[in-house]
């Protein structure tokens, strides 16, 4: 077994405990950062010091995005590809990432290729016509992908060998995580513990305990229970890639958004791949490569790398680990565990979709406090599906801004002893899009009785507005087709649907 001191997995939910001498844990959350969500956990002596680190991190992310973004025509990457920047004038950051990308293209036998976006474009264009690409179109593109994209010289010059578009999305986010951590260590040397999570890819400094949960790729709602969870007590770097949130649909069939550069076909066997490595850039690239390589080639690669481990979730529900995968993982509570082999059962329940609105003219704003729950006819909160709030400073001051949830939860705590605060993050989502799921149980895991309930969505945002949506629903034997709810200043694309449990299923849950 390979030596590995890191304990990790992405597709994660996390919280930090274990106080540091003369320091507190401060959590910051932002949306629409690099097109996804950002979460920071900073151990700092006070709020002012934590705020300073937050501002510096956001500034550094902006600086890095100006180098690597493929969505900004003025980024260094895009200007270089347009011939507006000479190869000899590239920044050290861009050259470093291009070199590492070529390293992984070589090591994976072409499974990782930063020109794979050309395949995505080919398939997307064909999908719009309701068909898959022709073999001729696919083979024409593959004839270019077999050759290296550029030549690297000893003088750090990168000379293009073809004109295919380059995207660094599969490695640059990890590199940015590494760069942020290096910056924190360099400029804030007194900070012992620091965690940054961007869209489910994570880098952690320090030894403060970090709880990490494995999300079920077939049941990805914010409130779904994880497949596994464990606590990491050492620095970690990890990334996840997969097709469970994004896919193409052609003639009623779903295809992975991850393509094999060696065949030009969508990757098929692996639904999600989670990787821990010595740095986040390598973890990022490997997570993508493993989705292409599949379990046999993928595990063979990982077993030959030092300080690198993986967890693969297969299309058929199997979970495959490398030999050194963390030994302290635990399955979730049995009554809350989503069973992979029972797809029909997990489809029953109440599904709620919503999107957090991006303020006009705003960059990465702080994520609002959000609560999504069910009340019975007496106003008692029987089940909270989503609860986003800061548990560290200045959390308590803002908890009360979720006025209805906060008031009702104080009532609930008289009856129950469960702790509801928690957050789950998964693979990259579209900016601000989320879903919540009610599985038919209450906060204690007991089946909900048939009857009338009120679905509540409450949002409170610093420097924003307060919004509350309440919608009565009938929990019983009749399904509810998708119903749209009125949008507001903080949320849009709000809808819900209800799928009743079959009688045999309900009897099993109650037993």
Automatic annotation (TrEMBL):
Top enzyme category: transferase
InterPro entries on file: ApbE (IPR024932), ApbE-like_sf (IPR003374), DUF2271 (IPR014469)
Keyword annotations of the record: FAD, Flavoprotein, Magnesium, Metal-binding, Signal, Transferase
Gene Ontology molecular function: metal ion binding; transferase activity
EC nos: 2.7.1.180
Record's signal peptide: 1-23
SUPFAM superfamilies (alphabetical): ApbE-like
Listed cofactors: Mg(2+)
Reaction equations catalysed: L-threonyl-[protein] + FAD = FMN-L-threonyl-[protein] + AMP + H(+)
Record's protein name: FAD:protein FMN transferase
């Amino acid at each position: 077994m390979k030596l590995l001191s890191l304990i990790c997995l992405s597709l994660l939910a996390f919280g930090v405990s274990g106080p540091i001498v003369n320091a507190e844990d401060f959590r910051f959350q932002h949306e629409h950062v690099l097109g996804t969500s950002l979460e920071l956990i900073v151990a700092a002596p006070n709020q002012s010091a934590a705020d300073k680190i937050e501002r510096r991190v956001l500034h550094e992310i902006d600086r890095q995005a100006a180098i690597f973004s493929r969505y900004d025509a003025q980024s260094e990457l895009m200007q270089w590809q347009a011939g507006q920047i000479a190869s000899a004038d590239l920044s050290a950051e861009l050259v470093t990432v291009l070199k590492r990308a070529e390293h992984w293209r070589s090591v994976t036998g072409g499974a990782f290729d930063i020109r794979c976006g050309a395949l995505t474009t080919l398939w997307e264009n064909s999908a719009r016509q309701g068909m898959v690409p022709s073999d001729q179109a696919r083979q024409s593109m593959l004839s270019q992908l077999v050759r290296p994209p550029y030549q690297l010289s000893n003088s750090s010059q990168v000379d293009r060998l073809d004109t295919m578009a380059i995207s660094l999305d599969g490695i640059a986010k990890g590199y940015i995580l590494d760069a942020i951590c290096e910056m924190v260590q360099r400029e804030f040397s007194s900070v012992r513990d620091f965690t940054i999570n961007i869209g489910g890819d994570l880098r952690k400094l320090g030894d403060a305990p970090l709880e990490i949960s494995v999300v079920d790729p077939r049941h990805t709602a914010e409130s779904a229970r994880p497949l596994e969870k464990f606590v990491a007590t050492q620095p970690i770097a990890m990334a996840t890639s997969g097709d469970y949130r994004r896919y193409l649909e052609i003639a009623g069939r779903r295809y992975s958004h991850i393509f094999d550069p060696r065949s030009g076909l969508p990757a098929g066997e692996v639904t999600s791949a989670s990787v821990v490595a010595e740095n986040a850039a390598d973890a990022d690239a490997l997570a993508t490569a493993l989705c292409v390589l599949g379990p046999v080639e993928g595990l063979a690669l990982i077993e030959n790398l030092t300080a690198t481990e993986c967890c693969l979730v297969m299309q058929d529900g199997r979970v495959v680990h490398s030999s050194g995968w963390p030994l302290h993982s635990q399955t979730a509570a049995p009554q809350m565990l989503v069973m992979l082999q029972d797809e029909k059962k997990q489809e029953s329940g109440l599904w709620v979709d919503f999107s957090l609105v991006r303020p006009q003219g705003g960059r990465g704003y702080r994520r609002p406090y959000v609560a999504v729950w069910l009340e019975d006819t007496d106003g008692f909160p029987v089940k909270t599906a989503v609860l986003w709030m800061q548990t560290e400073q200045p959390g308590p001051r803002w908890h009360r801004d979720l006025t209805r949830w906060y008031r009702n939860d104080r009532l609930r705590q008289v009856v129950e002893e469960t702790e509801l605060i928690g957050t789950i993050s998964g693979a990259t989502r579209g900016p601000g899009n989320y879903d919540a799921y009610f599985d038919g149980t209450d906060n204690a895991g007991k089946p909900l009785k048939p009857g009338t309930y009120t679905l509540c969505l409450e949002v409170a945002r610093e420097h924003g507005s307060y919004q509350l949506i309440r919608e009565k629903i009938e929990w019983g034997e009749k399904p509810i087709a998708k119903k749209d709810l009125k949008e507001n200043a903080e949320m849009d694309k709000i809808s819900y649907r209800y799928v009743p449990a079959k009688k045999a299923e309900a009897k099993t849950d109650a037993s």
